[in-house]
Amino acid sequence: MNMAFDGEIIYWRGPSPFFFVAIPPEESADLKEISNRVTYGWGVIPVEVRIGNTVWKTSLFPKDGLYLVPIKASVRKAENLEEGDMVTIDWVVVKK
């Protein structure tokens, strides 16, 4: 499964501060339908993500009915991104 969408970079304080982009509701629902076949536990889904020219492997996290794409500091630096920026994310599920 691969997908592309636009989203806003959000900051989550949580126990570990991090930046994420929420996957839209319709696409999150599609992920939920296949999650038991692609998750490696707790609903977390391994993916390869691209923003601009930067590609990295990460995992999508379920949160409040949506999935979140974590945006690493190295990615934000390479692509000159900050909280509130809109980005286009391309990703593909990586086999577990």
What can you tell me about this protein's structure?
- By secondary structure, the protein is α+β, with helices and mostly antiparallel strands.
- It is built from two helices and six strands; from the N terminus they run ββαβββαβ.
- The chain has a single domain, classed as Elongation Factor Tu (Ef-tu), domain 3 (Beta Barrel), CATH 2.40.30.100.
- Helices cover 21% and strands 48% of the residues.
- It is globular and about 35 Å long.
Any chance you could write out the topology, listing elements then pairs?
Blueprint: E1 2-12, E2 18-22, H1 25-38, E3 45-51, E4 54-63, E5 66-70, H2 73-78, E6 86-93
Antiparallel strand pairs: 1-2, 1-6, 2-5, 3-4, 3-6, 4-5
Strand content: over 45%
Percent range of helical residues: 10-25%
The counted number of beta strands is: 6
Level-1 CATH class name: Mainly Beta
Report the uncertain regions. none
CATH architecture: Beta Barrel
Shape: globular
Distance between the termini: 13 Å
Task: Let me know the average pLDDT.
Answer: 92
Put simply, the count of helices is: 2
Sheet with most strands: strand arrangement: 1-2-5-4-3-6
Please trace the helix and strand order, writing H or E for each element: EEHEEEHE
The number of domains is: 1
Instruction: Tell me the quaternary state.
Output: single chain
Please describe the structure with a list of short key phrases separated by commas or semicolons.
Elongation Factor Tu (Ef-tu), domain 3; 48% strand; 6-stranded antiparallel β-barrel; 6 strands; globular; 96 residues; alpha+beta
